[in-house]
Design goal:
Elements (H helix, E strand, L loop, with lengths): L9 H6 L3 H26 L15 H13 L6 E7 L6 H14 L9 E2 L17 E6 L5 H18 L4 E6 L1 H35 L2 H26 L6 H31 L4 H28 L7 H33 L17 H12 L1 H16 L20 H12 L8 E5 L2 H12 L7 E4 L4 E3 L2 E3 L4 H7 L3 E6 L5 H16 L3 E4 L1 H13 L2 H20 L2 H27 L4 H4 L10 H32 L2 H31 L4 H33 L18
Antiparallel strand pairs: 1-3, 1-4, 2-3, 5-9, 5-10, 6-7, 6-9, 7-8
C-alpha cells in the first residue's frame, strides 16, 4: 500500500526517523573530530611540515649528492658562517674564535666538509673578506631537507654560544635560508587570515546589505579554514607534506567556501524576496545550488588531481591536501551553511543596513557587456590586444631556483646572506661539486669545463690544483685534501653569474662531466632535475586539463564550439597572468611595492601551481555563466539577448565572488616568501583578467559573432542547463 505522506498528520511526519539527517550529523561530527586531531598533531609538533619535496625521487642530483656524502663525507655546503672580528681575520683572537666555532658545528655537520679560512695552509684568499676583518667557514649538514631543518636551530645556538661580544657572525647558505622561509611562511598565514576575514565581511555587507547574511560566508570560511588546518595535520602524520601547503590550501579553503556560500545566500535572498517563508527559501536555495556546488567541487578536484602525475612530492602533497579541502568546502557549504542560513536568515530584516536588489546588474558589468554586444569586432580586437600585451613578457621567462632573495628584503636571513654575498663574491653563488671514478677522469672533466664557455669565470679546487681568480696555485692546500680527495673537485661560480647564466652553467658542466664518468652535484643541478620533472609531465597535465574542461562545458551546453572557445580563453587568461607575473617578479617592476628582490628569474614550480589553481577557480564561474547563456538561448533562440540577460543576472554575484577570492589571494600574496607571493598575486591577477576581460568583454563579443554556431553541432536545441 502506498501512503501519501502529505496526508499524514504533522506529528506523524515529524516522528518518522530522518536517517539521512542522522547520517549527515554523524559524518559532520566525524570530520570535526578528525580535524581536531589533525590540528592537535600539527600544533603539538607530532606532525611536521616538510621543507623539501622539490626533487624527483631517485633523480640524478639526489643520487649524485648521496654519492658525495657517502664516499667523501662532503658535498655542496648548505651552511656559510661569516665570522668577523674587530682585530682582523688574521689576529690570534680570530683564530681562537674560529677554532671554537669549528668545534661547535662539528657535531652537526660532516667534519670533512668543513672549509675554513683559518684551517687552510696557507690561507685560501677566496675565504677572506675584502676589508680583512672577516673569514668564511663553510660546511654541509647531512641528510634530507627535514633532517637538516631539525638541526639548524641547534647549530645556530651552538655557534652563538661560543662567539664572544667582540666578534659578530652572519649565517647564510641553503639550510639557513630554507629554515627562515619555513618560519616566515607559517607566520604569514596568520597575518593573511587576519586581513581576509574583516575585508570579506565588509565587502559582503555591501553586497547583501545585511549583517546576518554577510556573516554566513564569513563563518563558513572560518569553518573550512579550520578543516583545512586539520586536513594538513592529518596528511602530515602519514606522508611528507610541504610547508607551503598550509598557505596554499588555506587560501583555497577560504576562497571556495566564500564562493559556495555566496551562491547559497544569493539564492536564499532571491527566494525570500519572492515572498517565500524562511524555511521555504532555504529549501529552494539548497535544491537549486546543490548540483552547482557539487559540479564545481568535482571539477576543481579534477584539476588538482592533475598535479599527482608530476614526480615532485611538493606538488603531490599540495594536490592531495587541495582535493581534501575542496571536498571539505563543499561539505561545509552543503551542511553547515544551510544551518547558518536558517539562523541568520531569520535576522535579516533586523540587521539590514542598506537596501539591495541582487537582480539588478551593476553599472560596470552592464556597460561592458552592452558595449561588447553592440561592437563585437572592436571589443574582440581590443581585448585580444590587451591579452597579447599581458602575455608578451612570458616569452622571456627564465627559470632558476630560489635563494635567500626569496625572502623579503627586511628579513634577517636576507640581510645576513646579502652581507656574505658582498664580502665573499666567490661564494655569492653556491659551488658545484664533482665526483669522478678516478683522478684522471676528474682532471679531464675539469679541463673540458675550463676550456668551455664558462671556464674563464670559474674558480676550481681539487686536491692537486687550485685556480682562484684566474691565478693558479702550484702548492696544495693541506685542508683541501680531506675536502676533495683525489676524485672530487669544487667549482666556484663568481658573482658575475646571474641565476639564468648559472642554469646554463649547470647544463654545460653536467654534459662535460657525463663525458668523463663524472657526476656533478649542486643547487643548479637540483633545479635541472626539478624542471625536468615538471616539464616532462607538463604536456600530459595540459592534455588532461583540456579534456576535462572541454567535456564539462560540452556536457553542460552540448556545444562543441563554445567548449573549444572556453578552453582557449581559459588558457589565454592564464597566459596573461603568467606574463604579468614575469613582468612583476622576474623583471622587478613592482619590487619596492611588494618588498622583494628581483633576480631576473622565477622558480619553475610557481607557474604550474598557478595554472592548476587559477583554471580550477575560474572554471566554475565560466560553467555557471555559459550554462545560463545556453538556458536563455533555449528559451529565446537569440544569442545576444541570452548573453545580456545571463550576464545581468549573474554579475551581481559572480563579480563580488571573484573580488572576494582575489582579496584572499592578494592577502596571501603579501607573504614574505617570493614563491607564495607569486602564487597569491598571480591567482588574483588571473581571476581579475578572467572576470573582466574574458567574461564581460571577450565571451559576449565572440558569442555574438558566432551566433547560433556557438552550439554546433546541436545548433537548434542546446541542452537545458543549470542557471544561477
Amino acid at each position: 500500500m502506498i501512503v501519501d505522506e502529505s496526508a499524514l498528520p504533522q506529528e506523524s511526519r515529524i516522528a518518522k526517523p530522518h536517517y539521512h539527517k542522522i547520517l549527515t550529523w554523524a559524518i559532520g561530527l566525524g570530520i570535526v573530530a578528525a580535524c581536531v586531531l589533525g590540528s592537535i598533531n600539527l600544533v603539538s609538533g607530532k606532525s611536521t611540515l616538510s621543507t623539501g619535496g622539490f626533487l624527483p625521487d631517485y633523480g640524478y642530483a639526489q643520487l649524485a649528492s648521496q654519492d658525495l656524502q657517502s664516499t667523501f663525507k662532503v658535498g655542496p655546503p648548505n651552511v656559510l658562517i661569516d665570522l668577523r672580528v674587530d682585530s682582523g681575520a688574521d689576529s690570534e683572537a680570530a683564530k681562537r674564535i674560529a677554532r671554537n666555532v669549528t668545534d661547535a658545528i662539528g657535531k652537526f655537520v660532516l667534519k670533512p666538509s668543513i672549509l675554513s679560512y683559518w684551517s687552510t695552509t696557507p690561507s685560501l684568499p677566496t675565504l677572506r673578506s675584502g676589508d680583512g676583518r672577516g673569514g668564511l667557514i663553510t660546511a654541509l649538514i647531512p641528510g634530507g631537507p627535514n633532517e637538516v631543518a631539525r638541526v639548524v636551530p641547534r647549530l645556530r645556538a651552538a655557534v652563538d654560544s661560543v662567539v664572544p661580544p667582540t666578534a659578530k657572525v652572519n649565517m647564510g647558505g641553503q639550510a639557513i635560508v630554507v629554515d627562515a622561509i619555513s618560519a616566515r611562511a607559517q607566520e604569514d598565514l596568520l597575518h593573511a587570515e587576519a586581513i581576509v576575514i574583516p575585508v570579506t565581511f565588509v565587502t559582503l555587507l555591501w553586497v547583501f546589505g545585511s549583517v546576518s547574511l554577510a556573516l554566513i560566508p564569513v563563518l563558513s570560511a572560518a569553518a573550512t579554514g579550520f578543516v583545512a588546518f586539520g586536513i594538513v595535520g592529518l596528511l602530515a602524520s602519514q606522508m611528507e607534506v610541504s610547508v607551503y601547503a598550509l598557505n596554499i590550501v588555506s587560501a583555497l579553503a577560504l576562497g571556495l567556501s566564500i564562493d559556495y556560500s555566496l551562491l547559497l545566500v544569493s539564492r536564499y535572498h532571491a527566494a525570500s524576496r519572492s515572498g517565500m517563508s524562511g524555511p521555504e527559501a532555504v529549501a529552494t536555495a539548497m535544491s537549486s545550488a546543490r548540483h552547482i556546488i557539487f559540479t564545481a567541487a568535482s571539477l576543481m578536484s579534477l584539476c588538482m588531481a592533475c598535479l599527482l602525475i608530476v614526480n615532485l612530492q611538493f606538488q603531490r602533497s599540495i594536490a592531495l591536501a587541495g582535493i581534501c579541502v575542496v571536498v571539505a568546502a563543499a561539505i561545509v557549504s552543503l551542511v553547515i551553511a544551510p544551518i547558518l542560513l536558517r539562523w541568520c536568515g531569520a535576522l535579516e530584516a533586523r540587521t539590514k543596513v542598506r537596501r539591495v536588489n541582487l537582480s539588478e546588474p551593476g553599472f560596470v558589468s552592464s556597460f561592458l557587456v552592452r558595449t561588447a554586444l553592440a561592437r563585437p569586432i572592436v571589443a574582440t580586437a581590443l581585448s585580444t590586444g590587451l591579452l597579447v600585451i599581458l602575455i608578451t613578457p612570458f616569452f622571456s621567462v627564465n627559470f632558476a631556483p630560489l635563494d635567500d632573495r626569496a625572502l623579503t628584503t627586511s628579513s634577517g636571513a636576507y640581510k645576513e646572506s646579502t652581507k656574505i654575498r658582498k664580502d665573499y663574491p666567490d661564494f655569492s653563488n653556491e659551488p658545484l661539486y664533482l665526483l669522478a671514478k678516478n683522478s684522471a677522469d676528474l682532471s679531464a672533466a675539469i679541463s673540458d669545463i675550463r676550456n668551455g664557455a664558462f671556464g674563464s669565470d670559474l674558480d676550481t679546487i681539487t686536491a692537486n690544483s687550485i685556480s682562484i681568480g684566474g691565478r693558479d696555485f702550484p702548492s696544495t692546500f693541506g685542508a683541501l685534501k680531506s675536502v676533495t680527495g683525489q676524485q672530487a673537485g669544487i667549482l666556484l661560480p663568481g658573482s658575475s653569474f646571474t641565476p639564468a647564466r648559472l642554469m646554463d652553467l649547470g647544463r654545460s658542466v653536467k654534459r662535460a662531466a657525463s663525458d668523463h664518468n663524472t657526476v656533478v652535484s649542486g643547487t643548479y643541478i637540483d633545479q635541472l632535475d626539478e624542471q625536468h620533472a615538471i616539464f616532462s609531465r607538463f604536456p600530459a597535465v595540459i592534455c588532461l586539463l583540456t579534456i576535462a574542461v572541454f567535456l564539462a562545458v560540452f556536457a553542460l551546453t552540448r556545444g562543441a564550439v563554445v567548449a573549444i572557445k572556453t578552453v582557449v580563453l581559459g588558457y589565454a587568461s592564464l597566459a596573461a597572468a603568467f606574463g604579468a607575473v614575469v613582468w612583476i617578479f622576474q623583471e622587478g617592476h613592482l619590487a619596492s611595492l611588494l618588498g622583494f628582490k628581483a633576480t631576473g628569474s622565477v622558480d619553475a614550480i610557481g607557474p604550474v601551481l598557478l595554472l592548476i589553481l587559477a583554471l580550477g577557480l575560474s572554471l566554475d564561474y565560466q560553467i555557471i555563466l555559459l550554462g545560463r547563456v545556453a538556458e536563455e538561448y533555449r528559451k529565446s533562440g537569440d544569442t545576444a539577448s541570452a548573453i545580456r540577460i545571463s550576464v545581468d543576472r549573474t554579475a551581481r554575484i559572480l563579480a563580488p565572488a571573484a573580488l572576494l577570492v582575489s582579496v584572499v589571494f592578494v592577502a596571501i600574496g603579501m607573504s614574505g616568501v617570493t614563491l607564495v607571493k607569486i602564487i597569491g598575486v598571480g591567482l588574483a591577477l588571473a581571476l581579475i583578467v578572467d572576470s573582466i576581460v574574458i567574461r564581460m568583454v571577450l565571451v559576449p563579443a565572440l558569442m555574438t559573432l558566432l551566433g547560433r554556431y556557438n552550439w554546433w553541432p546541436n545548433i537548434d536545441a542546446p541542452r537545458k542547463t543549470l542557471s544561477r
